[in-house]
Task: structure prediction
Amino acid sequence: MMELGGGGGVTYNPDMAPTRSFIRHGRPSSDTIRKVAVTMHGRPAQFIELDQSRPLVAIMHDICKEWQLSEPENYALQFTDANRQTYITEKNRNEIQVGNILKLTSSPAKTSQEIYDKLKDNKKENKFDALKQLPVLSVDSSFAQEFISKQGLHLIIEIVTNRQEFTIPLLAFALKSFVSLMDHSIVSWDIVDEDFIAKVAECLKDEDCVKEVTCLQAALEIIESVLLHSDKYTIVEEFFTPFEIIALIENSSVEIPKNLIAVLNAMLMKADREKHKQMTENLQSKSFRNIIIDHVILKSKLIDTDMAHQLSVLQQIMLNLYEERMNSPPDPAKNAKDISELQKIAFDFEGEIGSRKTITVSRDFTKDASKDAKKLGFKNVANPLEDFRQTPPGVLALDCMLYFARVHGDSYVKVVLENCSRADEHDCPFAQASIYLTKILCEILKIGEPPSEESNTYHRILFSHDRSFEEFFSTCIQLWNKTWKEMRATTQDFQKVLSVVREQIVRGLNDRPLNFDDFRDLLKQFTYAEILKNWEKERQSKEALESNAQPIIELRKQITPDIMEMIKKQRMNFMMGGTLFSKIGARGLKKDKWFWRLSTNLKTFHYGDWSSETIPTIEQLPNKLSVVDVKSLVVDKECPHVKEGTRRKNIAVNLCFSMIPVTCDPQNFVASSQHEFDMWTDGINTLLANPMGSKQMKEDLEMLLGMEIKLRLLDTEGIPIPSMAPPIPPEPDNLDFFYNI
Result:
């Protein structure tokens, strides 16, 4: 046997000599030709040059003619790849690649008719054979279209409804086929009736079905789709409840919790308001959360992308239970006592914070209410409930504050009293911080938003507590207080603290803590200093990435000449200001000094001896050196006073430079610093029309280029810069434009 390369590893008998067929029409372009092999059981392979510009019907006619097959309309080509054995049609023929091995087989119409006839046959073996083939064939859209047009779906519904004569594996084939056919969205899910739904729902309670993974999975997929894509929710809920789904998840033998959670999500999304709320509250129970953690989350092998998506949807549905409170203002009749409770817990206690025992009632709450409200950080001290009017977060912020005070009383008192003891400018208003924090937590967790069809982000920590959002708030308000102290913030820095705390929370969640203890340990790592360091790294990475983008490179090229001119002018200004240099003697630097400066017309150096700390005028410098008389500039070891002065011990060679005039002896210098050396050598090189090459020039160029580019890109803040410039569109056919102004 010999293997054909390029697609699927199909083998054929070498004794059957392959035929070479050139299926062409005229002279097609090489771009439309695909050299492929076509196989058929019991026939020698054909090697053809398939012309993509020809109709598929004509190509099929030629292939059948080569094999002397009549009725070519009863045949079709198929891909033979292991993961793609679909029919080739005019729509997908562009997927044919050079070297593919294609298979000639019965057409979708003929195959679907054969399957339909077998399913209608009274012989059980024919039905069984058809049911085994159907799941594979149903994946192909061409077959599905033909089979459904022959009322094949109704036949499968009938088979499932009267399933007594079938074994569980054959029922699984029928259910899987139904799912595959419906996935093509050719017909509506309203096609199913109550009897069919009842029979499918029975699979969830049948022990034999539960053990057959394929059967249970297909049944769950059907129930999920019926819930999501039809109006038959009330029929579905008659046959099973969410608690039965939860029980199946808990069954360790079940390998498909993803489908179970998908059905649970569908039931929650389709339930009416009251049922939805009741079901969601029941799912907050510890027993359900433990099932999710123990049987789903901790079994990491199950957390693929689809499972992560279903957990994300479930979590979003559960979090949206807080939406009503988030969008509700406080009710004075109900919530006034909540403010009093916050004040009592904060200010009426005995002993140390860590050993609070009983609440005293010795204080006059009516008299001290405004004072306490101010200490708690309310804006409206006369009526603190007014601070919760804005929605979101509405009264949800008050709920979180009360939970923190009741459940974490010691931490609550500590936070409040710490802020009361600070100076006014460093006081962190607890109530205002709580309102802002609740709002950003709602934004981070997307409370109020419908579950996303693409999201696969879920937070394991939120499955670990009965009151997950309130506990989340209690942890984060303590983080806020800690960060406020680290930043030594004032009330003017409120938004700055808000952004830092938000970053700390997001980074903590991104590390996927399993419970709140792990989350608190993670937050200790994300100090204010660490956040600043991370922001700086991210900023530098972003700038480095953007600087390599082609548009930025082009922009740098455009503005570099202007920046270089700016640097040259700065060097000229430095030399015009002048510099006091030490004179050089036979044994090194002398105590005598001389002053050099450039004239304002950039044509002459003026110099002379100078001992004062003041800056001399040009008239006070008697000597001159014309720039045109300077032949060259040399530095370091090339300087004459360095070459000749082997005994000069106190001269820094790297700071030496010399101007070599045409008409007189070299003028030798030793700069007092690297900056002075760079400024003078750059300036002299500029006057001599030589390129500047100092380290200072490169640093100045990068700094000024960076600043100029940032200024020019301010209007593009938040807009991603493409790595390549977009292509310029072609010119129009004519430029005869007419505007009616």
